[in-house]
Amino acid sequence: MTTDGFTTCLWFDGQAEEAANFYVSVFKNSRIGTILRYSEVGHGEPGTVLTVEFEANGQKFYALNGGPQFKFTEAISFEVRCDDQAEVDFYWNALTEGGGEEGPCGWVKDRFGVSWQVTPARLVEMISDPDQQKADRAMQAMLKMGKIDVAELEKAYAGE
């Protein structure tokens, strides 16, 4: 292979540029790259956006205006690992802004239908604890949440 890593293609129905700009505005270490437009040859209106290359949080993507044939599902999601409650709150609010949907257990869908897991790093530490009782208490608490509340997880983990 000639490049490092993978580039994820996200299929949109006319919203590729809007979505790329949204993701770049939400995540640090992000930028818009090359924007390709339909020409006289192709399936789109000449001059409209075909693809937008972008990086979000250092990850490579391109957004494709492919049409209405395919929709996003929860079968594919992106995890946003957060350092603290402030980051959880920021990403939860940013990703649900403008028509996104809150889901269970830290999951959200953004306004484009892309699924995200807003996960505090501390949750992963708790549920992987070798003390199974502590891990189970944290897991049970998480399963009752929409947006993850780290303080509530800590209480459950401690048995309070």
In short:
This protein is 32% helix and 28% strand. It has helices at residues 16-26, 85-96, 121-127, 132-143, 150-158, and strands at 8-12, 31-37, 49-56, 59-65, 77-82, 101-102, 107-109, 115-120. It has a four-stranded mixed β-sheet, with helices on one face.
Topology:
Blueprint: E1 8-12, H1 16-26, E2 31-37, E3 49-56, E4 59-65, E5 77-82, H2 85-96, E6 101-102, E7 107-109, E8 115-120, H3 121-127, H4 132-143, H5 150-158
Parallel strand pairs: 1-4, 5-8
Antiparallel strand pairs: 2-3, 3-4, 6-7, 7-8
Task: Order the strands across the largest sheet as they lie in space.
Answer: 1-4-3-2
Structural class: alpha/beta
User: What is the rounded Rg?
Assistant: 19 Å
Q: Give start-end ranges of low-pLDDT stretches.
A: none
Largest sheet: number of strands, sense, barrel closure: 4 strands, mixed
Q: Counting H and I runs of at least 4 residues, what is the number of helices?
A: 5
Could you explain the architecture of this structure?
By secondary structure, this protein is of the alpha/beta class. It contains 5 helices and 8 strands; from the N terminus they run βαββββαβββααα. It has helices at residues 16-26, 85-96, 121-127, 132-143, 150-158, and strands spanning 8-12, 31-37, 49-56, 59-65, 77-82, 101-102, 107-109, 115-120. The chain has a 4-stranded mixed beta sheet, covered by helices on one side. A hairpin with a 4-residue loop joins strand 6 and strand 7. Helix 4 runs antiparallel to helix 5. The radius of gyration is 19 Å and the shape is elongated. It starts with 7 loop residues before the first strand and ends with a helix. The mean pLDDT is 95.
